[in-house]
Amino acid sequence: MLDIMNRLNLTRATMSEKIPILFIVCDVGGTHALLPVIRLFQKSTTELPVVFASGAAPDVLKAAGIPHTVVPLLSIAEFQRVFRDIRPVAVVAGTSGGITVDKHCIAAAKETGIPTIAVLDSWINYVQRFNTDNSDRINPQMLPDRIAVMDEIALNDMVALGFPKERIVVTGSPYLASLKERFLLRSVNKKRIGFIDEPFRETIDAGWHPDWGYDEYGVFADLCRVLLDLGFSGELAVLLHPRRKDTGGYPTPQYPFLVRFVTGEDKSSVIETAGTFVGMSSMLLFELALLSRNVISYQPNLVIKDQFIGNRAGVTSGIYTKEMLRDMLSRMLTSEKDVPTPHAYAYARPDAAERIVELARSL
Fold first, then answer.
1. 0.70 exceeded by pTM
2. Residue 345: in which H helix or E strand, if any?
């Protein structure tokens, strides 16, 4: 037992005290979803939250100044032994794809009699967030007591897929509720276009994401071709996904416009000033649409019904051909829009974080 606790870097003092709520995060989206909840918990109690982090989560937590324990992928049985010792009041986890710490922790907590809550951050791949084989089957072992979802769209989607309705609670999205606090709205630079990168090819090849008929490289190539046709001479800023390194595998030919690859804190200046954004189905694209930025969701050769929440919620319109992309970009690049006004998104409940904390304490 001590060997496992040493691997988790947990002290004897931690082990001797009952942990109020244990937060578990693995990927970027799940971490963003729980950050407002963790911060609220910090403010509402004298006890420090305990946060287990894996995958891309430690970098996000470090940047946010949240203390955390980096956790290896232990077996469900090993996590059971940990939970029998630390006995948290509840486990609140983000969601992710594949074989991950959050899923093993939920399964272990259930076996140990500890209440479990999963907090969703996206409107896609619902079932794959609750299994480890990327199939279309929910794994009951990894299905928590409650699932906090963003809105009625997510609830209805999940019920249609076979999730028990009584376990789903519409809390709103803590991340979207804090949207206006995170971005400073400045006058836009119409000569700057932001491209929102998503690692579709990697996740398709890994089996975590279905092939919808396109990937980021094809979308980027179409965008560059259209910008050439339109005579664009400004800057195309590629906002690389946090998992990317260097240029993310994108080709870098010479264009009459500047192509710049942006990571980390440098993304903020692009997000706050670019006049137009092009992407596929990224949550960041949705957030920018809610802030009334010029946003294009481009999904060429789409082989399924459009899953992007921006289009489904009526905040954005889907673009599916290069001709449509050219027409929309031409109009946006000559738009008179200057300082945007945030969109009124009904499901961004200001009390979303409070509702999740209350839910955890009520189980």
1. yes
2. none
Residues 6+ apart with CB under 8 A from 211: 204, 303
Listed residue (145, 73, 86) closest to 110, CA to CA: 145
The pLDDT tens digits of the residues spanning 194-248 come to 999 998 888 888 777 788 899 999 999 999 999 999 999 999 999 998 878 778 7
Query: Which residue pairs, CB below 8 angstroms and at least 24 apart, start in 130-139?
Result: 130/95, 130/103, 131/103, 132/98, 132/99, 132/100, 132/103, 134/97, 134/98, 134/206, 134/207, 134/208, 138/162, 138/163, 139/103
Do 200 and 215 form a contact (C-beta atoms < 8 A)? yes
Tokens for 244?
Answer: 């990317």
DSSP 8-state class, residue 218: H
- Residue 278 tokens read as 């092009």
Q: Could you give phi then psi for residue 324, rounded to 5 degrees? A: -65, -40
Separate counts of helices (H) and strands (E) for the chain:
16, 13
At 306 the three-state DSSP class reads coil
pLDDT digits (tens, 9 = 90+) for 50-67: 899 999 999 999 989 999
